[in-house]
Design a protein that fits this description.
The protein is mainly alpha-helical. The protein is built from 23 helices and no strands.
């Protein structure tokens, strides 16, 4: 029985979010122990080297994104030979990339001290120790390339929950072991050694799962790609690589610039805030990462009007994530940092504003980039990442002399707002789904203005709440309710709000039906929109999605098929890097 796109996406989302919550809790505990025992300087090194390795990962060239896109069609058509040929080709490419990354990393080792603004003699480690730390970071990344490629087929086949579950289990185990080792030895080498072990074992397990789930990968392992297929992949790789340059420079060089032009200590402080943002990103991305494969499937089968209908539903989620996160960050960042890692790690409100704005802008781009990736529109805006990267790093370095860390973050953010966002929207709306670009841009501008206004009001109200852990809990619940409530009040009249309200109701009913069935000890009948939808899918293809959408569209007097959620293949295969843990 073929699972509907909706049921796969919901499974990916539920499993992902459950694991992320557990992983998030232990990662914050690890970071707290790390900062308190090793200090801001080691924290800065951790963030600096993570960023350097992300830059070296440019050697990946965007093959993961391009291969994932190429896999959608053969997976849908059950073309085992083509799928196996693509994966064999991918494996060879990744082995070459591992060698390139190792060589590039070794070339960086003699110059590490030049990426730190302070005199190395003033820091709690020697230059040889610094090089040893970097060598372990490099080994971790190189090892991951040898096995990580097989996770791509799992996510492209809309089974991202398998990857998420394995990753979360090993992340939790890693953090627990790291906490124990830090408490016993207070040693950075031990901390990094466990990271390498986790990367190898984590990717080995996923390799085994993929091999068992797709046995034909071994059966047809000697299948070769036709020259035409390789040519198509390389064309997409060229464009994907340019996009990756922009992404890496905008998001992965911030700590490098702060460490080089401001201070290593400031880079360490900044990494605390970014850990929060990255963990929240991971949580929110479970929704978006669960959809690109479904959207890619949708873009093959459906009209542009239908695609735009789904786009508006996806963008509604992106707008909520953007506005909600901005308000929460503005109001909660510094009070939480003070409790979590200490008052001396708190940064100015200007830096908080820049980080919050940068995060909001990232979420506002989610829907557009998800659709662009799913439609394979890698070459349409090939120039954008180069322009964005050049302007971004130029502004970041220039403004660092004026405003320090605030200037660095603001510089990157301004490049994204005034270069990346307009170009991305133009490409999708003028060349992809052919809808009103002006209306789309006005929606984004209104969202930013609304977030600024509500965020300012929320921050002002929060000034009346005293400091302390007990008061922070009160502050947290107030801000969450305030931010979510403001968004609901502003959008309750929209069709997208009514759609998600109905969807939430049906999911809750299905859950309650299962719970009642378990209590009775009997077999649970398929609940509407869940098992029933999947049964219908067996007879009607994507009927499961149609059944769920029907409930929403009854209010409008029509029944229309719906693929609510989506599955996005992670464009960048997990390298097993530590994300500032």
């Amino acid at each position: 029985m073929e699972q509907s796109r909706l049921s796969k996406s919901l499974k990916n989302t539920v499993f992902g979010m459950t694991g992320i919550i557990c992983s998030l809790i232990v990662s914050f505990a690890t970071k707290s122990v790390f900062v308190r025992l090793l200090g801001a300087e080691y924290n800065g090194v951790n963030g600096l080297f993570t960023n350097i390795l992300q830059v070296l990962n440019l050697a990946e060239l965007g093959f993961a994104t391009s291969i994932a896109y190429a896999l959608y069609k053969p997976l849908k058509a059950d073309d085992e030979r083509t799928t196996a040929a693509l994966m064999s080709y991918f494996a060879k490419i990744y082995r070459i990339i591992a060698i390139v990354v190792a060589a590039a990393g070794c070339c960086c080792i003699p110059f590490l001290q030049h990426l730190i603004a302070e005199d190395i003699s003033e820091l709690p480690f020697t230059i040889n120790q610094l090089r040893g730390y970097f060598a372990m970071f490099l080994a971790n990344t190189v090892c991951s390339y040898l096995l990580a490629y097989k996770r791509t087929i799992i996510t492209a086949d809309q089974n991202n929950y398998l990857v998420t579950n394995v990753d979360n289990i090993f992340n939790i185990l890693l953090n627990i072991v790291q906490i124990v080792l830090l408490l016993i030895y207070k040693n950075f080498y031990a901390y990094l050694a466990t990271m390498i072990a986790k990367t190898v074992i984590n990717n080995l397990v996923l390799h085994i799962i993929a091999s068992k789930k797709y046995p034909y990968l071994h059966t047809y392992r000697k299948e070769k790609l036709a020259k035409l297929e390789k040519s198509a992949i390389f064309k997409n790789v060229q464009a994907a690589f340019l996009h990756k340059i922009g992404t890496v420079i905008i998001f992965s060089t911030t700590s490098i610039v702060i460490s080089s032009f401001v201070s290593l200590v400031d880079a360490g402080k900044y990494s605390n805030y970014i850990l929060i943002v990255n963990n929240v990103n991971t949580f929110i991305n479970i929704v978006f990462n669960s959809v690109t494969a479904s959207i890619g499937n949708l873009c093959v089968d459906e009209s542009e009007d239908r695609q735009y209908e789904i786009f508006k539903k996806i963008q509604y989620l992106a707008l909520f994530a953007a506005i909600f996160s901005y308000i929460c960050y503005i109001c909660l960042f510094n009070p939480f940092i003070e409790i979590w890692v200490g008052e001396d790690m708190v940064m100015s409100m200007w830096v908080v504003f820049a980080i919050s704005l940068n995060a909001m802008v990232g979420y506002l781009r989610k829907a557009v980039n998800t659709f662009k990736d799913a439609k394979g529109m890698f070459r349409n805006d090939w120039f954008k990442p180069l322009l964005e990267a050049g302007v971004g790093i130029g502004l970041a370095i220039g403004l660092s002399y004026v405003w320090g860390t605030f200037g660095v973050v603001l510089g990157y953010t301004l490049a994204t707002i005034f270069i990346a966002m307009p170009v991305e929207n133009f490409v999708l709306f003028k060349q992809g789904i052919h809808k009103s670009l002006t209306k789309q841009l006005m929606t984004l501008v209104c969202a930013v203005v609304f977030a600024f206004a509500v965020g300012a009001l929320g921050y002002y109200i929060n000034t009346f709440i005293p400091a302390g852990i007990g008061w922070f809990i009160l502050r947290f619940f107030f801000v969450v309710i305030f931010a979510a409530g403001a968004f609901v009040l502003a959008t309750f009249w929209m069709p997208e709000f009514k759609y998600y309200k109905t969807l939430a109701g049906r999911i809750c009913k299905a859950m309650f039906a299962k719970i009642k069935g378990l209590k009775r000890g009997g077999k649970v009948a398929p609940a509407a929109g869940e098992g029933g939808a999947e049964s219908k899918a067996a007879g009607d293809g994507d009927g499961g999605d149609d059944a769920l959408q029907a409930q929403t569209d009854k209010e409008k007097g029509s029944v229309d098929g719906e693929e609510c959620c989506k599955e996005r293949t992670d464009a960048h295969v997990d390298r097993g890097e530590i994300s500032d843990n």
